Give the backbone structure.
Amino acid sequence: MMTLIKIGAQNNTSSNNIRSEINLDVQDPGIKIWLVDPTYTQQQISSESMPSAVGGIATFTEKHIKLKHPIRIFKYPEKLAMALENEIPDVIGFSNYMWNSELSLALARRIKEYAADTIVVMGGPNYPVVESEQETFLRKHPEIDFHIKGEGEVAFANLIAELIRSSMKKSNLKSELPSVHYIRSDGIAQITSSIERIKDLTEIPSPYLEGKMDEFFDGKLQPVIQTTRGCPFACTFCVEGMSYYTKIYRNKQEKTQSELHYIGSKMQEVKNKGGRNDLWLVDSNFGMYNEDLETCKSIAECQTKYNWPEYIQCDTGKNNKPRVLSAARLVKGAMRLSGSVQTLDSDVLKNIKRSNISGDSLMQLAVEAAEIDADSRSEIILGLPGESLKSHFQTIDTVIDARFNHVNTYQLMMLPGTEIDSPETRQEFDMKTRFRILPRCFGYYDVLGKQIVAAEIEEVCVSTNTLSFEDYVKCRKMHLLIHIYHNDGLFNTALEFIKFLKLSPYGWLELLFEEKMIGAVKELFEKYEQDTRQELWLNRDELVQNIQNPGVVDSYISGDLGYNLLFVHKAIAMSRFIPDLKKFAKITLEKLLSRNEINSVENLDFLNDALNYDACCISNIFENIEKTPTADMKYDIQKFISEKNKKLEELRFKKPTKISFAMNESQQDILRRSLKLYGSTDLGVSRILTKVFVKKILRTGSTSDDLQKPDIQIKNSADWPYC
């Protein structure tokens, strides 16, 4: 019986769909198909997600084409290289993301050099949106036989069927295949319209339930599931902002539930062996829909049954915050609530097509998250069209005062396939860009007797007609101050004291920004500014060439170059400069109190205790974790934090009291697993800072009497999240 798949080619210039049917009834001659979602591994694993996307393409193809050989999946370049020594596939497909594009291309080139008849297919979002640029990309990369635009499952299956009919010869292809782009044998570019999207994601057999992901439960990689595809918002800086992705399609709940329980049983074994214990939900707006609550109920079942996941990485819904909060309540604090603010300037919001996202709703999220003791984060992008230093700082001010306890700051990346990357947008806002190497995304590998060298390059906006480059550098300085003095609760007591005094936390950050820095803090920020300037290259081709020079990649792998500036400098600060950070905090806070004429002896005494308390909480959390710092305190800081309406004089101990700052077993377990996975170097610690709810592993002060109480150290901390 013939197998027909109904597909549609979505015309980019019209709302009408061109309907067609593709015949997948073919006789497989025994072709071997490999799919690769490569990641760099030589410094640290750059992309830690399991290759579930290519896994879905494999299961869909196997469902509709009766193949004699199962499709093989690869993640690590070393394993791919070993497999290539034994056999060469007939078709090999590579993912094309911003974090692995150059690695995929380098692997493809080497395979084509060695075995010219092997058909190379590439697919993924890191692909131009303009037709002329798509053709340029294909001509620049002759190692690519076909590039699939948009959703890959149906398009790839169609391509395989047509190749089988064409005796595995690209030159024999007769049909135009939606979403399949290539240069024909006569030199003409075949650029077809995008294939109609799959409306019921259940049509894609789960790569987990089919066993395709079993080998990737190795303790290093993070399981990934997707319950929905698409995004109703049209943000110009995001690939999913394109009209192709505006409709929301989803998996059926039964499939999602089965996947979660399957993964949970596997991850339980992983955690017991000292591996990670997390989940990545790749939906664009998780928690915004009714069905997401059912997903969270299934996750809660897994938490009870398998003690998984402790941490959920996801982008929560940009609207419908009450439902998002309900979802967060169900998963026992494992989900960090995200307010993707980006900017609060109304003109900038119009420029990036985010006017349909409620800023007030995003701000309310932080308030309500604090009420249920949930972690909340906000995202702000530097360099958006129309943004200035003043408006950027105003957004930071509003977000911090809204009580977001973690403010993530990013630079605007010019992603291929986004509207903001268009020549028209660049010209309109006089956008100047520079190039840099993505952290951890570099390396070299021996493949088929030859060494390949690759590194991923991102293009970032560093100035516009409203933001100078020097203002860009100043904003980056503020970002590091936020990460050190605001995020993760590193100076939580000091911040709570500021709020207690009815002062603005942002006012303190502004003072930290303006104050002349001293000692090690000055050195830290001078090095950070120097690195901020030096990591940027004017010319992409020159950076590409530099990567190929002997020893350059080794410098990146060793950590001398190419690290995440924010988190590495934060790691250095936390590991080595706590006394200096405390001293600078004291200078600026005393000035803040003086400016507001509230620098009484009582307030200054309490401030001193608050800073000593915070410093002890941060002390040796990445090495010598069993060591317990102590400090003599005049005030009961614990009571201050838990009973915020207390008067300071009521919190004073009768006499100075020794406070111990121990870690409970749960915290130590989290840190040991983290350090095992990433190491205790500055680079390792910087990676941990991005993967752990840091405020949940900070030490807690206790008196000797408190230590006799069995649960004093773990109160409200039974489900501390870990990634």
